[in-house]
Amino acid sequence: MPELLAILVAKREKDHDERKFLAALQGVDLDGKSSSSQDEGSGNAWEDMKARVFSGGKAKNASDIVSLQGHSAERAGFGIGMGLEYDVVKDGKI
User: Which range of residues forms the domain containing residue 9?
Assistant: First the structure.
């Protein structure tokens, strides 16, 4: 019976290690936090996703200045169209 238990424990550990490896390939650390490029953002995945959606995909995360448009700019006290302007430069011409 101890041999069967040892086999079962070893199989579970092997399965866990395989899942952990596959998750690591996708940038997820099962033992802790995410290790993918999403850590470069503000730290809040929900806010980063909202920033991308409301900016039409222009913002990379919630700390990107392009995400401050409309109501979110009003809450922050500034933003595009509220004293903060930008120009699109193509081929060195404004």
Answer: 1-31
